[in-house]
User: Fold this.
Amino acid sequence: MNSAKSPAKKSWLQTLIKNKSERKKVIFIFTISFLLVVAGLIYIPIYKHSLPLDSKIYEGNFKELGSIA
Assistant:
């Protein structure tokens, strides 16, 4: 058996970013970005589902803009 300690494995993020506080900031920003993307993916289908009900209000405005153009 080898009595020498093997070096601890480093994650890919530890090899890219040496400073621990900067690494925590990057992880925090990635987490917030991921949560915003997930929230957007949940919100868009709900918004598109309710859009046809709300768009009839603006039909007159669209016709006016089309006739002006």
Q: What stands out?
A: Helices lie at 12-16, 20-55, 59-68. The mean pLDDT is 77.
